[in-house]
Design brief:
Chain B: GO terms for molecular function: oxidoreductase activity. The complex is a heterodimer of chains A (465) and B (236). Chain A is α/β, with parallel strands linked by helices and 465 residues long. Chain A contains 23 helices and ten strands. Chain B has two domains: 113 residues, Rossmann fold (3-Layer(aba) Sandwich); 108 residues, Rossmann fold (3-Layer(aba) Sandwich). The radius of gyration of chain B is 17 Å and the shape is globular. The two termini of chain B are 24 Å apart. The chains are: A alpha/beta (465), B alpha/beta (236). Chains A and B meet through helix 1, helix 15, helix 18, helix 19 and helix 20 of A and helix 1, helix 2, strand 2, helix 3 and helix 4 of B.
Chain lengths: 465, 236
């Protein structure tokens, strides 16, 4: 997916102006997720869970070479074909070979953010393969030709009316068809696809190194079908998805479910241990593509590597009041919200993702929600500091900050500034920053006298400290 | 007991009366108050925007200005957290920064945790108060119950407010760099507020932003810093 992250400020403003319905839909849905998460966290000793999960992830990340080799060995022993992809092009090469060897005409796809990163769908279309997104939300946005706006709820920005209209145009359902009826229509289309596709594509929530097991979580059953009905299953797995032991799933499956949707466990968990054996039903071929795409570089970053603990649960998006106003589209890349703001600069480059670390008030709600305690506010500050150091921020801002420092470094200048603030008419509509403030909030009115002048009176009138 | 008041630049310029209230309240509770007159800004705007080289000299001078104080009290959660938590990021391992971090308190936190005050008076009897939890007071300093306790014990009815712990959208430079998003956040926050007579918070920035938004929407609601309201709680 091509990044348009640099346009974030303009796109966020435009969306709020032109599509007010998105704000309403996203706020409603995220607050719903957020309430569920808080309830679900409250049912368990969540701080212990979070601390433990963080420790396990940190262990894997600091011994990644060992666990990757172990995982590869176990996968091969299980009969899985393992491929390594450093870049999207590498992943494309693997997929193209599989598609051509099997003469694939139709593919069903389980929801996967990594395949968005790798732009798998455009490749398949170019190869003449008909691709069906089978997660209902993903299917909707595929019909609309839009990217996902949330890690877990890709169609979170759509209202029921918009979906009814889409299905009316596409399938001739009545404009007031209830959600159940719409789901039935999608189900029918997708069943056909499941039964006729030669290729199933998925991501993975976890890859267990000691057993070579892929773990996938979902609520709709489409992942189970996508990975078991077609003859060939290809799973794209980011290098950071490893867990050391099978037993770790006992923590990570429920923790991810509680963080993402407030469920105790997702409705379905698929544990995939390789292709069908004698007498079993299932795919003849299972491929795992281990994808880097910027991850090892991020792992070497002493200040930002912790970002790789991310479980892609979306809890920080739901908790984020900034994300809630617009949903994910203005962020302009696969990952949006707080985690996107710190992950995208690491996966792309800070230059491409420059405005995203500024898409936050540093309120800290994301850090409280994160099941693996990624210090997102601190990471946002780190990326901002780097943006300044790399000269990516506007020149006027740098000049203003320098002036600010000079005034504040000198009590005499500060007092002069204080007098000017009251003595001179503020050019409220001239300075762009002041205008940006006053347009929405009215004029800035300083107190008649600053406190440091009142202090003298307080001292004299009331006899010193 | 003697404390140094760090009013912070924003309150100095826009909520001077909160400084007066804080001084009167502390004195009334038997605390001697100093106001080191060389104080300016803690450097947070530059730090948060990524301009650490501009923020660092301001942090260093603030450390000097308050080096002698036994306690430093701020009527601002955000600036208190800057000094307590973030100076150490600007100046890793700095001895003076470590020392100052140990003695910095937001006003209500100081009253409850250090002075052990639970009740100031009954000056807020029957007042319907909406309390906005400033994010840094709440999540970086852990100040949640202290302001509520002092308000309730003074007779105020602290209103249940669904979005009381949600960010108001101020965020310093955020408010002017992404004004549309900032205002949408304020609107969402204010839309969930009903029946309040007074809106208060620890942080001047949030209050300027929310008061401005209310003004723009033609809504009348008294917006005052927590220090002002706590003085009213005491003095009636």
């Amino acid at each position: 997916m091509r990044a348009r992250a640099r346009l974030y400020p303009k796109e966020a403003a435009r969306l709020l102006r032109e599509k007010p319905g998105v704000r309403e839909a996203v706020t409603g849905a995220t607050l719903h997720f957020e309430r569920n998460r808080l309830r679900a966290y409250g049912e368990v000793p969540i701080e212990e869970w979070r601390e433990r999960a963080k420790a396990v992830k940190d262990h894997v990340l600091t011994h990644l070479d060992h666990y990757l080799e172990l995982a590869e060995r176990r996968l091969r022993e299980n009969g899985v074909r393992v491929h390594w992809a450093e870049t999207p092009e590498d992943a494309h090469r693997v997929l193209r070979e599989i598609v051509q060897r099997h003469g694939v005409r139709r593919a069903v796809k389980a929801k996967s953010m990594l395949t968005e990163e790798l732009a798998v769908n455009p490749l398949l279309q170019a190869l003449g393969v008909e691709v069906y997104e089978t997660d209902l939300g993903e299917y909707l946005i595929q019909l609309l030709g839009e990217p996902p706006s949330h890690i877990v709820g890709p169609a979170i920005h759509l209202s029921l009316e918009e979906i009814q209209k889409l299905f009316h145009q596409r399938f001739g359902t009545p404009l007031d068809a209830p959600p159940e009826a719409l789901a039935q229509v999608a189900r029918k289309v997708l069943r056909e696809a499941f039964l006729s596709a030669e290729l199933g594509l998925s991501g993975a929530n976890f890859l267990v190194a000691e057993t070579g097991t892929l773990a996938l979580m979902e609520n709709e059953g489409n992942i189970r079908l996508s990975t078991s009905l077609p003859r060939v299953h290809v799973a794209f797995v980011g290098l950071e998805k490893l867990l050391p032991r099978f037993a770790d799933l006992a923590l990570f499956l429920p923790l991810t479910a509680r963080a993402a949707t407030g469920q105790r466990l997702s409705t379905f968990v698929s544990l995939i241990q390789g292709p069908a054996r004698e007498g079993e039903e299932g795919p003849e071929e299972v491929h795992v593509v281990l994808v880097d795409h910027g991850r090892t570089a991020l792992l070497q970053d002493p200040e930002a590597w912790e970002t790789l603990r991310c479980l892609r649960c979306g809890a920080c998006l739901n908790a984020c009041p900034v994300y809630r106003q617009t949903g994910g589209h203005p962020y302009g890349y696969v990952y949006s919200g707080p985690i996107g703001a710190v992950l995208d600069p690491g996966l792309l480059s800070l230059e491409e993702a420059y405005p995203l670390p500024y898409a936050s008030t540093l309120c800290g709600a994301c850090y409280e929600a994160c099941p693996v305690r990624i210090p997102i506010p601190r990471l946002l500050l780190t990326w901002r500091h780097r943006a300044v150091a790399e000269g990516l921020t506007p020149a006027w801002e740098g000049a203003a900050m320098k002036a600010f420092r000079q005034v504040m470094a000198s009590p005499a200048l500060y007092r002069l500034f204080s007098k000017a603030l009251r003595g001179l008419p503020l050019p409220q509509d001239l300075l762009p920053l002041l205008k940006a403030w006053t347009e929405g909030r009215g004029p800035l009115k300083p107190s008649p006298k600053p406190f440091h002048e009142l202090w003298k009176e307080l001292e004299e009138a009331e006899g010193g400290p | 007991m003697r404390v140094a008041l760090f009013l912070t630049c924003l309150a100095d310029q826009f909520y001077a009366e909160a400084g007066v209230a804080a001084v009167r309240l502390l004195r009334a509770l038997g605390v001697q108050v100093d106001f080191p007159e060389d104080q300016t800004c803690c450097g947070q705007p530059a730090f948060n925007a990524g301009y650490w080289d501009e923020a660092r000299p301001l942090a260093k001078r603030t450390l000097r200005v308050f080096a002698e104080a036994a306690y430093v009290v701020l009527p601002s959660g955000s600036c208190a957290s800057m000094v307590k938590n973030h100076y150490l990021e600007l100046l890793p391992g700095d001895r003076e920064a470590l020392a100052l971090a140990e003695k910095v308190y937001e006003l209500s936190q100081f009253l409850v945790r250090v002075l052990g005050v639970k009740r100031l008076g009954e000056g807020l009897k029957g007042k319907k108060v909406a309390y906005h939890h400033g994010c840094h007071a709440l999540r970086e300093l852990g100040v949640r119950e202290e302001p509520l306790l002092l308000l309730r014990n003074a007779g105020a009815e602290v209103l249940p407010w669904e979005a009381s712990e949600e960010c108001c959208g101020f965020g310093g430079l955020f408010s002017v760099k992404l004004p549309e998003v900032s205002l949408a956040m304020a609107d969402r926050k204010l839309a969930t507020l009903h029946e309040a007579e007074v809106l208060t918070s620890t942080d001047a920035g949030c209050l300027l932003h929310l008061a401005g938004r209310l003004h723009r929407k033609g809504k009348h609601l008294r917006v005052v810093p927590l220090a002002t309201l706590l003085w009213e709680a005491y003095a009636g």
